[in-house]
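Our consortium's second objective concerns turning raw sequence data into structural hypotheses that experimental partners can test. To show how far this objective has progressed, the report includes one record in full. It was chosen at random from the queue rather than selected for favorable results. The single chain below, 71 residues long, was entered without modification.
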Amino acid sequence: MAKLKVKDLKELGPEEVKRKLEETKEELFNLRFQNATGQLDNYKRISDLKRDVARIKTLLREQEIAEAEGR
């Protein structure tokens, strides 16, 4: 799965972005569990997902601020 791009996220609706955040968090949890049990092959995917979660949270916060300012 490719990294998320902010441009692609901005094209999604607010509910879709929140759903994407939940999916990403769930995948990150599963990878961490695999890592703990010694079954993980792609360690880089964990850091990629952490960055994706941060990107999504940043976008949601920007939208929240813009909404509060009345844009």
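The partners drew two points from this record. The radius of gyration is 14 Å. The CA atoms of residues 12 and 20 lie 10 Å apart. Both points have been shared with the crystallography group to help prioritize constructs.
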